[in-house]
Amino acid sequence: MADSNPWKRSHYIILAEVIKEELAKKEELRNEKKFELGTSISHITLQRFFESDYDYKTHNDLRFIKTLDKLCIFLGFKNLNNFVTKAKATKNNQSISSKKEFPEDIVYNYCKTNFEFFHYFPLLKLELFDNLIFEQAPFRERIKNYSSKLCERNLKLLTKNNRSNFEIFDLDIISEEADKIVLKTQEFWNLVFIIESSGNEYVINELNTQIYFIKKINNIWKIWDNYNPNSGLLNNEIEKKP
Predict the structure, then answer these.
(1) How many Cβ atoms from other residues are within 10 Å of residue 206's Cβ?
(2) Cβ count within 10 A of residue 19
(3) In this model, does residue 56 exceed pLDDT 80?
(4) Interatomic CA distance for residues 117 and 166, integer angstroms
(5) What long-range pairs does 70-78 form, CB within 8 A, spacing at least 24?
(6) DSSP sequence for 99-130
(7) Cα–Cα dist 65/68, whole Å
(8) What is the pLDDT of residues 86-135, one digit of tens each?
(9) φ and ψ at 37, to 5 degrees?
(10) 238 or 70, which is more confident?
(11) How many CB atoms lie within 10 A of CB 152?
(12) Alpha-carbon dihedral 219, 221, 222, 224, rounded to 10 degrees
């Protein structure tokens, strides 16, 4: 149901029924509170919420506040005030922790981009890394060197039936300075490449620890270097099995 875009009338009817059933079980809606708020929300009201079909006057309507109260209880909060209080606290915590979250985002986006990079083989599209790796970085030069050899061999990545994939585990910041952050990951890469002219397949199936060195240059944070013990593994495998 949630994957449908846009939602149809029937989706809002179903959601209204789910909310009604759940609210009937809530401790917060027992005794007087139940008679004050009720346990149902109109599917039309839900549709207006989703479509932001409310004006300023409606926001000050008591019925609107009661509806918000019930929605907050449905979502696991005691009431609307409890939701607002926790939302403010979460926002403040996010502001405090945002500095520590962004290097993890850089590394995660690099891994996604690296996987996309393999999809273009035998084309070498180093420009995909422009927003993630400094142009003058040694890491970028190493990617160019080992990937050029793979592209020269006309390798293609096999993705049908999810034959190639990757996962990232345990992103941890191990050191942090004003202009440099070092981050460690556990990564699993399962990659299947083929040379169509010969039909030869080459499989990389590795779980390893990688270290990323992220720098700030001209007030911009990007990856400067990376330690990956298996970076040249595929070229070595091809040389063993030409």
Answers:
(1) 15
(2) 20
(3) no
(4) 13
(5) 70/19, 70/23, 70/29, 70/37, 70/38, 70/39, 70/41, 71/19, 71/41, 73/23, 73/26, 73/28, 73/29, 74/19, 74/22, 74/23, 74/26, 78/28
(6) HHHHHHHHHHHHHHHHHHHHHTTTS--GGGGT
(7) 5
(8) 777 766 655 444 455 688 899 999 999 999 999 999 999 999 999 999 99
(9) -105, -35
(10) 70
(11) 10
(12) 80
pLDDT-derived band at 70, boundaries 50, 70, 90 = confident
Structure tokens at 193: 């490449």
Residue type, 79: N
Q: Is 73 helix (H, G, I), strand (E, B) or coil?
A: helix
> Is the pLDDT assigned to residue 1 strictly greater than 70?
no
Supply 235's token pair: 């070229």
Q: Which long-range contacts (CB under 8 A, 24 or more apart) does 149-152 make?
A: 149/235, 150/121, 150/122, 150/193, 150/234, 150/235, 150/238, 151/121, 151/122, 151/123, 151/124, 152/122
Q: Which amino acid is at 230?
A: N
